[in-house]
């Protein structure tokens, strides 16, 4: 899972392995091994990758499908993120609906 997600994130930015290696201060060979599943990155490398691509380490490791670390997002940012991600769950979709309904009620009071 990690290798696929790393490759996907890098390709999404149209970066070479060498470009990513320079950005996170590792060798290009390390990136190649990680993407081919021949070795696993250290926790500090995972953190550097997550910070660089602004995703959670849990996303990189396949523990969640949510790319963004939710604790750092405002409610409006969550709404935007989930509305453009077609892979949200029914629970997340319901939370979005509830946020919109609450915002409408608040706006009517003003």
What features would you describe in this structure?
The structure is a single chain. The protein has two domains: 2-60, lambda repressor-like DNA-binding domains (434 Repressor (Amino-terminal Domain), Orthogonal Bundle), CATH 1.10.260; 73-109, no CATH class. It has seven helices and no strands. With 110 residues, it is mainly alpha-helical. The chain has helices at residues 2-12, 17-24, 28-35, 43-53, 57-60, 75-83, 90-109. The mean pLDDT is 80.
Question: Which terms would index this structure?
Answer:
mainly alpha, 2 domains, 434 Repressor (Amino-terminal Domain), 65% helix
Number of strands: 0
Proportion of residues in helical segments = 55-70%
Q: What is the CATH superfamily classification of the largest domain?
A: lambda repressor-like DNA-binding domains
Order of helices and strands: HHHHHHH
Evaluate the radius of gyration. Answer: 17 Å
Mean pLDDT: 80
Taken from the alpha-carbon principal axes, the silhouette is elongated
The largest pleated sheet is described as: none
Strand content: under 5%
- What structural class results from the helix and strand content? mainly alpha
The CATH topology of the largest domain corresponds to 434 Repressor (Amino-terminal Domain)
**Count of folded domains:** 2
Uncertain ranges: none
- The tally of helices reads 7
CATH architecture of the largest domain: Orthogonal Bundle
Termini gap: 48 Å
* CATH classification class of the largest domain: Mainly Alpha
Topology:
Elements: H1 2-12, H2 17-24, H3 28-35, H4 43-53, H5 57-60, H6 75-83, H7 90-109
């Amino acid at each position: 899972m990690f290798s696929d997600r790393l490759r996907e994130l890098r390709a999404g930015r149209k970066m070479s392995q060498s470009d990513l290696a320079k950005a996170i201060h590792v060798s290009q060979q390390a990136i190649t091994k990680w993407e081919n599943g021949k070795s696993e990155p250290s926790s500090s490398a995972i953190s550097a990758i997550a910070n660089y691509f602004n995703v959670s380490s849990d996303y990189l490791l396949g523990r969640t499908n949510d790319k963004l670390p939710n604790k750092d997002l405002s409610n409006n940012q969550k709404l935007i993120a989930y509305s453009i991600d077609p892979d949200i769950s029914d629970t997340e979709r319901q939370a979005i609906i509830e946020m919109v309904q609450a915002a409408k009620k608040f706006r009517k009071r003003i």
